[in-house]
Structure formats: C-alpha cells, structure tokens
Amino acid sequence: MTGDAFYHEGNRSLQDRFESRRIADRLAKMARAAFTDDDKAFIENAIYFFLATVDAEGRPDCSFKGGPAGFVRVIGPSELAFPDYDGNGMFKSLGNLDINPNVALLFIAMHGTPRRLRINGTARIDRDDPLTGRTVGAQMTVRVEARVIFPNCPRYIPTMQLVEPSPFTPMPGCDLIEPAWKGFDAFKDDIHPRQPTWKG
Predict the structure, then answer these.
(1) Distances (CA, A) of 144 to 32, 75, 87, 139
(2) pLDDT tens digits, residue range 104-151?
(3) What pTM did the predictor assign?
(4) Distance separating alpha carbons of residues 142 and 127, to the nearest angstrom
(5) CA nearest neighbour of 116 among 59, 166, 24, 46
(6) 121 FRET partner, CA 20 to 30 A, in 28, 86, 107, 151?
(7) CA–centroid distance for 167 within its chain
C-alpha cells in the first residue's frame, strides 16, 4: 500500500514536522488487505483484543474483548469474526457498530515475543449468523471485513505473565458464571435476562 493511500493530511503534517515521512512510507508498504498465514495464527491464538468504534457523531469508544483461544476466527481472505458474549447490557461497542460500521482492532502479545497487529475495516452484526449457534456463550456474531491489516512497533509492550484465564470465559461443557455485581442491590432489579446460547 502506498503512503498516500494509507495516510491522511493530519498524519502527513506531523510526519513532515518530525521528518518521518520516509520511514512512514516504508512502513505503509507492510500494510495489506488480506490476512497472511502468520496473521491468522496470531489472531486465532489470541485470548483478547481491543476494539475501537465510533458513534454517528464520530465520538470514539474502546473496549476490551476476551475469550478462549480461537474465539476470534479468520473466516476469509480479509474477513474475521468474533462472538458477542453476555455483558453489562450497555452495548456501547455494538451499538456504535449498528450505526457506524467503521472499526479498528488491536491484537497484542504481552508474553513471549511482544507483538502488535492492527486491523481497520467495517463490521456487521448478525444475531442469526450460523457461527453464533456454534460458538459457546455467543449471543451474536460480529464479522469484520478488513480494509487494512498492518503490524505495529511492539517496543513499549511490557512482558507480562498469564496467571490464569478469567473464570467467566465461556468454555465448552461448562456452566456460564454470572458476575457478582449482577446481584448487588444497586443493580439486581434491573438486570437483563441472559440470552440462551449453545454450551457445547
């Protein structure tokens, strides 16, 4: 991908001010529109990623999405899918996607070799997606068509150790656990019903 297709005027202005246009153009050549085998392996082994969305007025929202390895799947040359699990019922991210499909995903490896992979594209939500019925704990499925996929410098990623996965992560054959806050007096009378999902 050329730098002119990858960057807008705001990017270019700062690149020129800091004399980084040449390296920015070199890095833009690493951007692609299709997943490599290495991208696929990295994504499908991830147990979390960060999701950025915007509302109709362009106001951003960022969310942490977690699950067991394989909860995000690369399902086409430029397409991935991930489940929407039961949450707090606010639907900040998916509500944004419902009115503005532009999305950015950030995958980070903080153990082993540090790594970052960024994906910008458009998303669609489908409660009746066939993947929903085959994904433990899913109440909907989000499919993302990648516009651009690119690695990012990992230099500031700390080395961390995974102590244990979240006990709330939906797993085949396991009962879904409700978080304690749903039973707090301040919330319990307003909790929405958990949607029926496949348990595996």
Answers:
(1) 15, 10, 20, 17
(2) 999 999 888 899 999 999 999 988 999 999 999 999 999 999 999 999
(3) 0.91
(4) 9
(5) 46
(6) 86
(7) 20
